[in-house]
Amino acid sequence: MSIVKIKDKTFKTFIPESEIQQRVKAVAEKLNRDMDGKNPLFLAVLNGSFVFAADLMRYITIPSEISFVKLASYQGTASTGEVKEVFGVTEELHGRHVVIVEDIVDTGLTMKRMLETLGTREPASLHICSLLVKPDKLQVSLDIEYAAMEIPNDFIVGYGLDYDQQGRNLRDIYRIIE
Ligand code: IMP
Description:
Helix content is about 20%, strand content about 35%. The chain is of the alpha/beta class. The chain has a 6-stranded mixed β-sheet, sandwiched between helices. A 4-stranded antiparallel β-sheet has the order 1-2-10-9. It is globular and about 45 Å long. The protein starts with a strand and ends with a strand. Inosinic acid binds near residues 103 and 106.
């Protein structure tokens, strides 16, 4: 068990690199089976999913493509509050089998927004692939077909996930020590 300090917070090892790799491989194998012959387009959401996406893609053995999108927040009207916009979708999604690749689904609001935005481009199908899901935090109903791991509500860092932009380089996943 190792302890890391990032800014004002302390974290301890939660999911070791070897287990992450096993889980990522398992989810990739399911995608290889389900998406065979569909030439899926993986859309990885930056910044958090960059490590997961890189490992996932190297376990994918079927013809496929990957591209990267980014979410930016802006302040909507008083009624809509913070609104997240999807940037960087340069591919034609019409008729494509699209798999959104995320680092973590927490409340699910970000993913819901992604589905709404990408859905308007009329893909043939739209799927969710997330490294991590916090089921107890979900506020919206989502069909997360490809989840590598489910975790409790604790805040985590590492393997692409950050605390205040730090910690993305950690090879294991760490959870916060209260
Ligand atoms: P949601 O809209 O509440 O599902 O939030 C999703 C986003 O919040 C993720 O893409 C992450 O960027 C961030 N996030 C949620 N939980 C954590 C965590 O435990 N560690 C790091 N980032 C997190």
